[in-house]
Amino acid sequence: MAAVKPISPFRLSSLLRLQKDPNIALQLFQNPNPTTQRSKPFRYTLLSYDLIISKLGRAKMLDEIEQILLQLKQDTRIIPKEIIFCNVITYYGRARLPSRALQLFEEMPSFRCERTIKSVNSLLNAFLKCRDFDKMREFFVGIGKYARPDTCSYNILIHSCCVRGSVDHAWELFDEMLKRGLCPNLVTFGTLIYGLCSSLRTKEAFKLKEDMVRVYGIWPNAHVYASLIKGLCGVGELSAALTCKEEMVKTKMKLDSAIYSTLIDGLLKVGRKNEAFGLLEEMESNGCKPDTVTFNVMINWHCKNNDFEAAYRVLDEMADKGCRPDVISYNVIIGGLCRDEKISEANDLFDDMRRRGCVPDVLSYRILFDGFCNGKQFKEAAFILDEMLFHGYAPRCASLHKFINGLCDEGNSELLWTVLNSLGQGNAIDSDSWGMAISLFCNGDKLPAKLVDALSTT
DNA sequence: CTAGGGTTAG
């Protein structure tokens, strides 16, 4: 019987490139030649490592990546490129795992890979994604050990100030980068304009848009316009926002779905429904397809009107057009249903979203928990709370107060007891809530030791 | 895919 020709290292890369399913790609990588005897080890190429890691990264399969990295570390023939590590650090940032991002950065030399400003910046941005500003600052102070900060490093720092709402601090960083001889670029200005607009300082934002052209010869792009338009919508200047859009058309810039979604949302929020729908038609006829965000804007509007049938129809339309609803699409409808006291329908949709492969986030749990509490369905609330804690999420403080108050009012000490235990274990309870709960139990000596411990550390 | 824009609650 003729033996099947074994897969060569070169061919493995082509197969990995073609394979859409990350799990199958992983199997292929781990065992490229299942039928042939393993006389000598398979000689993986750098490209095949690169391909499998990017595939797994896009699928958020981080533990599997860890395995591949271990193999890569031991495969001493290979000198990995820095970009692989930049990418994995980015994946850790997205997954809110700042310590693992830092750990990988520290291990890079043991992979025979040199660290430049690129991986330094990836790490800074991972910290930013995780909103770990302390780690960011601490790392930036010692950054000189690894590399000299560049424009990108400053852009990340400026962005971190903007998301914290301290635009003035962002300006200080801008001055500092100039002093260090670094040139601001389009991203720098885009970020500063974003910060000014988020702080509703639209006048200054427009001034900067002029200055970037006048002083630096850098022209605004769609990112800049999106921030400006959102800022103008935020201060209720819809007409000015529409003028911005006209300016983009005049200067032959392409209107993308972000521009349209922002404007449609702004118009709907001030009740200019016909113009919003007009823009929706215009975007389609301009060859700009509505995406998940555009549909979410529509879903949000329908839910605000308590028109859930229409919201469901948007979900159907998304399916027809091959646009996957995301966690926001579901959260908006679940939240709307809860507000309209259709809690069991909200709970059904919550189950639905998971069946359809959409992972609930902290907000999904909070919305549903609040819904159950408002409807005084404390048993169901306790069930969701348990699940939420299991996933490492905590309820909002005010919700927890309401919940515990509700249980106290009902005199449901049994359920309260169970819930306090989970809360104590999850470290998810503040001292006020403890106080409220404790007051229900007049005899302090009846408290289980674990709760007393937790109380004394709060 | 070293960095920037648009949609969710309160």
TrEMBL record:
Superkingdom of this entry's organism? Eukaryota
Keywords, A to Z, come to: Repeat
- A Pfam family of this chain: PPR_2
Q: Does the keyword Acetylation apply?
A: no
State the PPR repeat positions.
Answer: 150-184, 221-255, 256-290, 291-325, 326-360, 361-395
Q: Which organism is it from?
A: Tripterygium wilfordii
Sorted alphabetically, which NCBIfam families does this protein's record hold? PPR
Its protein name is Putative pentatricopeptide repeat-containing protein
Determine if Ligase is one of this entry's keywords. Answer: no
Q: Where is the signal peptide?
A: none
> Lineage from the top down?
Eukaryota, Viridiplantae, Streptophyta, Embryophyta, Tracheophyta
Q: Which PANTHER family match?
A: OS03G0856100 PROTEIN, PENTACOTRIPEPTIDE-REPEAT REGION OF PRORP DOMAIN-CONTAINING PROTEIN
Q: Which InterPro entries does UniProt cross-reference here?
A: PPR_rpt, TPR-like_helical_dom_sf
Tell me which family the UniProt entry assigns to this protein: Belongs to the PPR family. P subfamily.
